[in-house]
Amino acid sequence: MADTSEQLLSAICEIRDLIRLMAEPQIAARDQKLRDELLRIVGKSVPGRKSVFLMDGSRTQMEIHKETGIHNGQLSTLVKQLYENKLLMGEAKKPKLAISIPSNFFENACGK
């Protein structure tokens, strides 16, 4: 029974990922202003970019700091700026990005 549930969950996750991939152009257009603001705030900071991808609501700021090596003060400032610009939701202790971004978001932005 558990094996069937795991297979079903895996298939659902694959379908979700495919739908996200197909919808990315529409999501990008809808969220363009917020994505531009995210790029402006994070800038070229590699630890900042890594931190943003970990902001899924499941990690504390301390966990993000440990995983990325970003300075505590820099992370705190980043989180504050993202909240002020409505790019985060939920609680500040466990930040969650309010928009979806593809895994190559920052690389594609540098290519513009």
Structural topology:
Blueprint: H1 2-30, H2 32-42, H3 46-54, H4 61-68, H5 72-84, E1 88-89, E2 96-97, H6 105-110
Antiparallel strand pairs: 1-2
Helix pairs in contact: 3-4
How would you describe what is shown here?
The chain has helices at 2-30, 32-42, 46-54, 61-68, 72-84, 105-110; strands spanning 88-89, 96-97. With 112 residues, the chain is mainly alpha-helical. The protein has two domains: 1-30; 31-110, Arc Repressor Mutant, subunit A (Orthogonal Bundle), CATH 1.10.10. It has a two-stranded antiparallel sheet. The longest helix has 29 residues, at 2-30. The chain is globular.
Q: If you average the pLDDT, what whole number results?
A: 89
Q: Give the fraction of residues assigned to helices.
A: 55-70%
Judged by helices, strands and strand pairing, the structural class is mainly alpha
What oligomerization state is this entry in? single chain
Reported for the largest beta sheet, the result is: 2 strands, antiparallel
| Rg for CA atoms | 16 Å
What's the total count of β strands? 2
- Global morphology: globular
CATH top level class name of the largest domain: Mainly Alpha
H/E element order: HHHHHEEH
What is the terminal separation in angstroms? 49 Å
Give me the CATH fold name of the largest domain: Arc Repressor Mutant, subunit A
Instruction: Tell me the β content.
Output: under 5%
| Total separate domains | 2
